[in-house]
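Input record (Table S2, row 287):
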Amino acid sequence: MIDLPDPVPLSGQAKLAGVLGWPVSHSRSPRLHGFWLRQYRIDGAYVPLAVRPESFVEAVRALPLLGFRGANVTVPHKEAALAAMDRVEDLARRIGAVNTIVIDADGRLEGRNTDGFGFLESLRAQQPGWQAAAGPAVLLGAGGAARAVAVALIDAGAPEIRLVNRTVSRAERLARDVGGPVRVFAWDDLAAALAGAALLVNTTTLGMAGQPPLELDLDPLPPEAVVNDIVYAPLETALLARARARGNPVVDGLGMLLHQARPGFAAWYGVEPEVTPDLRAFVLAEV
Ligand code: ATR
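Output record (2'-monophosphoadenosine-5'-diphosphate complex):
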């Protein structure tokens, strides 16, 4: 049983934030921030905001008028959000997407991206001995999540990023956009990419509930390489199960979701929140 205080009744000064998405019903962010609001007994609310793509700019520009302190942005608005901000942090610009908006006292919107931070914090929390400099990192996928992970790994000092994607042109575009020591591999060259790697990260949707499986031959991967799947439904993906069975240290995808939320919560509500086993259990539980 999780021992969680009841929500604080909202006053007229309640601190407001939310998540803009379309659809937004799948988002776990209201549950996640809702847990922290109760845990830290904050007079505040975090709400799902279902906003159509054609209304995104109007909706996001209205947030200061409604007294919001900020918001998260999820699919399909993360790229559109870049252009709708008054200011965009360097990191978010390099990643090419905004996932966190902070509104200042003058009502100006600042766009940030905390996905890469969440990825690294989760990796460090679940595998404290991991070092970016230990060797090449293999990244599967070239979508939005891959961009955030690639930039985070480059900034953390990974000597080489081996980018493997079904659509090679998309991987080449990512490599061009983010710069740094990124090498593109075709999916057929996966064995060469895995050889000598210190980290393998799946950022594709393969292996997610309802999606096709991720079929990989892990034989060329060194047994000490860390394997991180950012898919969290199911929590133990087939990739993680196979990696664990052959002795690789593993990192599940829930940690990234939880840790990416920390900077937004701190900015909006004024408390640095903690990722705990109770939070993990609460977010995983059926709503
Ligand atoms: P996100 O923003 O969450 O990263 P995305 O932009 O839709 O999601 O990216 C999904 C990733 O999964 C892409 O790398 C995609 O490969 P393509 O760039 O070739 O589309 C990958 N992916 C999805 N379905 C796949 C499949 N059936 N086989 C191989 N890769 C797949």
